[in-house]
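Consider the tokenized backbone below.
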């Protein structure tokens, strides 16, 4: 794993729009730079059934194309919200979130 050099005045050279379809909410709330220099965005994506799911997407730093994505559905249709994310000392992504609303 190489390190990513610090940039005094970073500039955006691409943009990415995630659309889950059917006018449902798709929002990004946290961004973290991966050890390999790519961007990981975390947020929620709402679909027709099942409510808001936690959605993680890793985007290529050069052109913004999706490298991978992961959707976590809440059990019993519960909505899941992202709290934070970070990288541990060996380069694994740690994600924290919670179930919104009442459980039970």
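A designed sequence for it:
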């Amino acid at each position: 794993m190489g390190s990513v050099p610090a940039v005094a005045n970073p500039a955006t050279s691409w943009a990415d729009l995630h659309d889950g379809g059917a006018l449902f909410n798709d929002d990004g709330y946290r961004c973290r730079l991966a050890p390999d220099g790519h961007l990981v965005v975390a947020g929620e994506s709402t679909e027709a059934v099942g409510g808001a799911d936690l959605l993680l997407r890793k985007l290529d730093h050069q052109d913004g194309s999706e490298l991978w994505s992961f959707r976590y559905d809440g059990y019993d249709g519960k909505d899941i919200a992202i709290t934070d994310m970070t990288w541990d000392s060996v380069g694994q992504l740690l994600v924290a979130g919670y179930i919104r609303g009442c459980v039970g």
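The beta strands are 26-33, 39-46, 52-59, 66-72, 79-87, 93-100.
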